[in-house]
Amino acid sequence: MNFTVRFKEKFQMENPGIRGVPSPSLLLLWAYDTAWSLAAAVNRNRVSSSTPGRTLLGAVLDTTFDGLAGRFRLRNGLLQVSTYEVVNIIGKGARTVGFWTPESGIFKNLKANNEKGLKQILWPGDLATAPRGWDVSSTGSPLRVIVPSRHGFDQLVKVSYNPTNISVIVTGYCIDVFDALMKNLPYLVAYQYVPFNDTSTYDSILNLVYEKEADAVVGDTTISTDRMNKVAFTMPYTDIGLSMIVVLKKYSSRSMWIFLQPLTHTLWITSLAFFFLTGFVVWVIEHRINPEFRGTPWQQFGIIFYFAFSTLVFSHKEKLESNLSRLVVIVWVFVVLILTSSYTASLTSMLTFQQFQPTVTSVQDLLRNGHFVGYQRGSTVKYWLEEMGFHKKNLLGYGTVEEYAEALQMGSENGGVSAIFDENPYLKIFLSKYCEGYTMVGPTYRLGGFGFCRKRWRG
Q1: pLDDT score, position 83
Q2: Who is most buried in 85, 100, 151, 329, counting CB within 10 A?
Q3: Where does this polypeptide localize (predicted)?
Q4: Closest by alpha carbon to 415, among 429, 426, 403, 430?
Q5: SS3 94
Q6: Cβ-contact 300, 270 below 8 angstroms
Q7: Does pLDDT of 429 surpass 70?
Q8: Residue 407 pLDDT > 90, yes or no?
Q9: How far is the first Cα of the chain from the last one, in angstroms, to the nearest whole number?
Q10: Strands 191-196 vs 143-148: parallel, antiparallel or unpaired
């Protein structure tokens, strides 16, 4: 039976007083596919109540199938969405008017014989035709757009003044994105940037919008649940993630045994074993028919040893009589060629390039050792670090990339920090300036990303 039919029948049975049973939304189909993937993982791996949660999680992450909402596939713990639902917002309600996939484009229904286009869209006032928008008259007041004025990450937002101190010049990546967005609107909207100097916390800037003293905020403003209770955000337009940067320390091993380091102990033992095995196999085949492989036991042992290692430089002088032994030697010569090439490349790298490794590799190391960590002043990162388990006394705030670099170089033992936590756009700016000696390590924690803020519509 069709899933939609079964869903409507069950919904009607559980809610007999409701008329007009809705069709399952895309979110409901995702939830159904997720539950199905969990059941499939349990069944495939014979999971019991004593099975560790990590094992079950790994089984779910490896599950791939064609579900009701399209291809179900998880990557980095997130569903790789292949189908998007197009929603028509009507007041406080919503209705599905179509779907979009990269392969098929826009279509009306999730069916094999789907019809192109969207269903009828209703506009405010129950209009079936799209409104023209509005034109701001020359006498109307432009939108007041607040821009945080601070120094440290000018690539994102920078506020400067002309020499006469009359006009404000606002630049940066966030400003470019907002200007491009406003230019692509189908109607003209006048707006002016208003710098705001108190950037100790961005919540104070958002309060201006909440209290209707401003119309919008444009800048490196992070989307969070608490902030969305007061103001509305656009979709994020930057990387969504929180990571950490640590110092790279130089690691150089120039001991007399460095020539042994390109290969592991197991590979050394295995290689030596195959050297002797190859020499022994060739001796077994040749000594009955080839006089060069005969002699006293010690002479024959020497031939085995010498023949095996002479293949390293392809200088063995013994003439082989058997085609079988020639085949063994040909195969072994190819193996030796690959082994020596890999060894030479690894040893050259060790001798000519300095080795680097991070001073800290995980958040657990920082928590276990009680290290100091840094964050950006005025951001929500401090809250997330406290949620991870860091004590307030171990959190130090900084404002510029230069302060980041100085604190990392000092280290936690000398009044600095062992790691800097910040959102990915800031860390990429830091690495673009200090590309040597630092690296991003550990997992990336997903946050809201940057978004433009505006007043909430109250119905």
Answers
A1: 74
A2: 329
A3: Membrane
A4: 403
A5: strand
A6: no
A7: yes
A8: yes
A9: 41
A10: parallel
Residue 137: the pLDDT is: 47
Return all residues near 306 (Cβ < 8 A) that are at least 6 apart: 316
Average pLDDT in the 219-246 region?
88
- 26, two tokens: 């895309």
Pairwise CA distance, residues 191 & 182, whole Å? 9
Q: Which of 76-80, 118-122, 323-327, 357-361 has the lowest mean pLDDT?
A: 76-80
Structure tokens at 442: 């550990």
Residues 6+ apart with CB under 8 A from 262: 342, 343, 346, 347, 350
Please choose, from the candidates 426, 436, 310, 324, the residue with its C-alpha nearest in 3D space to the C-alpha of residue 375: 426
The two structure tokens encoding residue 335: 């193996």
Rounded Cα–Cα distance for residues 342 and 289 (Å): 36
Query: How would DSSP label each residue in 361-411?
Result: --HHHHHHHT--EEEETTSTHHHHHHHHT--GGGEEEE-SHHHHHHHHHH-
What pLDDT is recorded for position 107? 84
Q: Residue 208 and residue 203: Cα distance in Å, rounded? A: 9
- Whole-number pLDDT of residue 171: 92
Enumerate the β-bridge partners of residue 322. none
Question: How far apart (Å, rounded) are the C-alpha atoms in residues 199 and 251?
Answer: 41
* Tokens at 162, concatenated: 């002309």
- Distance, in Å, from the CA atom of 216 to the CA atom of 452, rounded to the nearest integer, reads 7
In terms of Cα–Cα distance, which of 340, 342, 315, 311 is closest to 328?
311
Look-up: residue for tokens 């020497």?
Answer: 302
Contact between 149 and 170 under an 8 Å Cβ cutoff? The reply is no
- Provide, for the chain, the percentages of residues in helix, strand and coil under a 3-state DSSP scheme, each rounded to the nearest 5: 40, 20, 40
pLDDT value at 168 more than 60: yes
Tens-digit pLDDT profile for residues 96-113: 888 887 777 888 876 655
Q: What is the pLDDT of residue 134?
A: 54
Distance CA 147, CA 176 (A): 13
